[in-house]
Amino acid sequence: MTDTRRRVKVYTLNEDRQWDDRGTGHVSSGYVERLKGTSLLVRAESDGSLLLESKINPNTAYQKQQDTLIVWSEAENYDLALSFQEKAGCDEIWEKICQVQGKDPSVDITQDVVDESEEERFDEMSSPGLELPPCELNRLEDLAELVASSLPSPLRREKLALAVENEGYIRKLLELFRVCEDLENREGLHHLYEIIKGIFLLNRTALFEVMFSDECIMDVIGCLEFDPALPQPRRHREFLTKTARFKEVIPISDPELRQKIHQTYRVQYIQDMVLPTPSVFEENMLSTLHSFIFFNKVEIVGMLQDDEKFLTDLFAQLTDEATDDDKRHELVNFLKEFCAFSQTLQPQNRDAFFKTLSNMGILPALEVILGMDDVQVRGAATDIFSYLVEYNPSMVREFVMQESQQNDDDILLINLIIEHMICDTDPELGGAVQLMGLLRTLVDPENMLATANKTEKTEFLSFFYKHCMHVLSAPLLANTTEEKPSKDDFQTSQLLALILELLTFCVEHHTYHIKNYIINKDILRRVLVLTASQHAFLALCALRFMRRIIGLKDEFYNRYIMRNFLFEPVIKAFLNNGSRYNLMNSAIIEMFEYVRVEDVKSLTAHIVENYWKALEDVDYVQTFKGLKLRYEQQRERQDNPKLDSMRSILRNHRFRRDARTLEDEEEMWFNTDEDDLEDGEAVVPPSDKMKSEEDLMEPITKFMERKKLKDTEEKEVLGKSSLSGRQNPSFKLSFSGSTKTSLSSPPSSASLNPGSPGSPGSPGSGARSSPSTTAVTTRGGLVGGLVDYPDDDDDEEEEEEDDGESKEDPLPPSKKSKLSS
Question: For bias kind Acidic residues, which ranges apply (predicted)?
Fold first, then answer.
């Protein structure tokens, strides 16, 4: 794996026809059982993972370019490329591909044959080669027809490319072009346009290298000026030689680098401006042209990066106060284009690129540039800053934290960015939106690093809230001193909306720091002033900010909201909106609906107690009536805490019993002597879940028998009932230890008999109970399940009232002590 001959970079062509780097590894070829054929395998040099596994299909077209590139298409619109470190490795793999496909390794392209009959294919393969007509003026029409007829057939295209390449045909054609142009032979020029365009569609690197050489490229562009579809020829050469100027902001001493920059610019111009927009069928035919430009850019960045003198001079002039504005403008634009070119680098090389720029002092240089008055220069500096932030936000954060130890807050890099965002003169705030996105990336905890020695999140957020947050919130605080925004024009409102969007992001992701800031600076009250804005988008931003705070269900926030009556501006905005069914109406109702559904008790009570009169007539949604109902339920639980505590206890005992608790309860149950149990006491055992279905039904059957017996004997045994009217039975719970629940009732005649079904000593007694039907005996002798049905209780009470009999006997002393406990 250490063989550098096999070291390659893997690229794929994306939807934008740009090459994406997939990693660096080592390539090999071998038979893969799963793919049933010889395949190309690339394993990453970092971890050995499989970067590429591609079967060498006999019909796939492979192209060898620039001695170190192999390019092919796996499927429609999915192109792959291997870029070799050494030519020898490329030749080795190319021979393997040609061996599998039965091709001569001397060719630079292998093509499959499609859309042709077997006879045509046999005829063409058996023919020795394509014979081109002589390169003469009177044969240009024949040559144009030959090129047009060869393009649809891959095999004929291959033969045409070989013929053009071997015979040095391109240079002969360009000589003819000069003759036709001198003679003003328009017909011949039109034929040459079609021929040169067809040669581009041959998609052949060897041909491109000839066409894009210094002595040929301008004549090639000249041929493409004479489009037969246009009444007048284009003037591309005039633009390139007279209008477009090559500016050397820093002199480039390397002639090869200078030539590569010229070539790349002109080829890019041909692709973007000269060649007609390719049709759907022609688009893939220009993939080699895309590759040619891409790899040229990679070479340029690498050569510039290696030239230490060049970069040193660049940054020295950027930061030199003696540099005039025009020169600095050119330097910044060059640096911006340099960073844009770096996007073509693979990740490892891009790492080295940005580290080089950082070591050269790009961030201090940007700080100087952002302080300039020239809007265009600042715009270019912002673009460069965005490349740095997107690539490595931690590098930027580390720089500004170190800077804060030496400089005042006013000249910190982040504060300069915030000030440019606030002072953006564009009515649409295009620059401000870009800067806000960069700030959001910088304060996003998701891309902050945590190491053993320090936590970047803690350090940077502490720095940001101490040194920068007051600058960010200044326009908001300045504009909300009254009950309405002091400035409510469109541009100011847009800016405040941007600031609110960033603050809302902070509420979601920063918790502790933003909470302190909001409560100490009373930010929410100021933000809610904006609900009175004439611009609906700004009022909605303010509501969204409050909604995020409420969504955290943080009692610190809730107490702050209640203490300052901060629902008042929301209620005002709701009432001022009237009956209009719009976003404002829906957003406010959703906020109250969230409080109701999530049962935020403190806010529910606050809203109903303070604003119910304003909201009670709103009946087109049930939100506010639902809030009132929640509030009344809360009050009811507060007024009857025993009922509430009993429900929670039963709920806890039913759902939250761990294994250790069960074991303790079982031990207590079996250690309890039957004689210690009072008659009529219902004891709930711990092992409810272990009972069989038959066992679970027994207590219910015994209870019904006991009730029948009680009904027949109650006149003789029981005294007058102490229950009068329609009082709800009150529940009494007695605990033994920490977990065993004993639910007591006064003795009835049935329970006084030792052998009766209700006695603890008899088999199948009330000591067994299912979790879902746990019996609870009340003072009045009524038994309710875990879920009580009030109607049933009322019916039983009515029956008891009709009997007019008292069911309360004087309790023996032992009973009184049990119940009082």
Answer: 789-806
Q: Report how far residue 39's alpha carbon sits from residue 42's, in angstroms, rounded to the nearest whole number.
A: 10
3-class SS of residue 244: coil
The whole-number pLDDT of residue 640 equals 80
Rounded to whole angstroms, the maximal C-alpha distance in the chain is 137
Beta bridge partners of 9: 24, 83
Burial 632-666 (b: 16+ CB within 10 A, else e): eebeeeeeeeeeeebeeebeebeeebeeeebeebe
What is the pLDDT, as a whole number, of residue 717? 39
At 20, the pLDDT band (50, 70, 90 cuts) reads confident
Residue ranges of domains in the chain: 4-101, 139-294, 553-639
Evaluate whether the domain defined by 4-101 bears CATH number 1.20.120.450. Answer: no
- End-to-end alpha-carbon separation of the chain, Å? 81
pTM over 0.70: no
Which residue type does 394 have? S
Q: For residue 13, what are the β-bridge partners? A: 19
| Closest residue by Cα to residue 63 from 77, 87, 82 | 82
- At residue 122, the pLDDT reads 41
Cα–Cα distance measured from residue 785 to residue 730, given in angstroms and rounded to the nearest whole number: 14
The CA distance from 561 to 522, in Å, is 10
Continuous segment of H or E residues that includes residue 25: strand 19-32
Mean pLDDT value across residues 272-284: 68
540: left (phi over 0), alpha (psi -120 to 50) or beta: alpha
> In this structure, are residues 22 and 1 in contact, taking their beta carbons and an 8 Å threshold?
no
Beta bridge partners of 32: 37
656-675: average pLDDT = 49
